[in-house]
Amino acid sequence: MTSLFRFVYNYWIVITLFLLFIITFLSLSPQPSLPDVPGTDKTHHFIAYAALMFGVALRKPKNWLLIAVLFICWSGGIELIQPYVNRYGEWLDLAANVGGLMCGAILANIINLFFPLTSNVNK
């Protein structure tokens, strides 16, 4: 398990940018109907944004809280744009996104507490 955390710790930028791209693409792609996957729409938002924040909070670069605020603004922007691409923008989606970001940060802080991942690379 520690090797997985180390991988996320070392490649946090690539993972974060990839997840941000995927979340944005899936959020703004017009769909005739929602995909048939288990769970609610809000659960998917929560998990996606928790995963997005996890790597950033695990590595804690110099301005990681600023990055979290950027993610919140990005999420809000997506919700504002969605009605223009044949999707539904919902403020409850934004709330689920913010909850996911907070959960991802808390989980990363717990992991940093019990499995400290130090690196010779500047944070």
Automatic annotation (TrEMBL):
<feature type="transmembrane region" description="Helical">
    <location>
        <begin position="7"/>
        <end position="28"/>
    </location>
</feature>
<feature type="transmembrane region" description="Helical">
    <location>
        <begin position="65"/>
        <end position="85"/>
    </location>
</feature>
<feature type="transmembrane region" description="Helical">
    <location>
        <begin position="91"/>
        <end position="115"/>
    </location>
</feature>
<keyword id="KW-0812">Transmembrane</keyword>
<protein>
    <recommendedName>
        <fullName>VanZ-like domain-containing protein</fullName>
    </recommendedName>
</protein>
<feature type="transmembrane region" description="Helical">
    <location>
        <begin position="43"/>
        <end position="58"/>
    </location>
</feature>
<keyword id="KW-0472">Membrane</keyword>
<keyword id="KW-1133">Transmembrane helix</keyword>
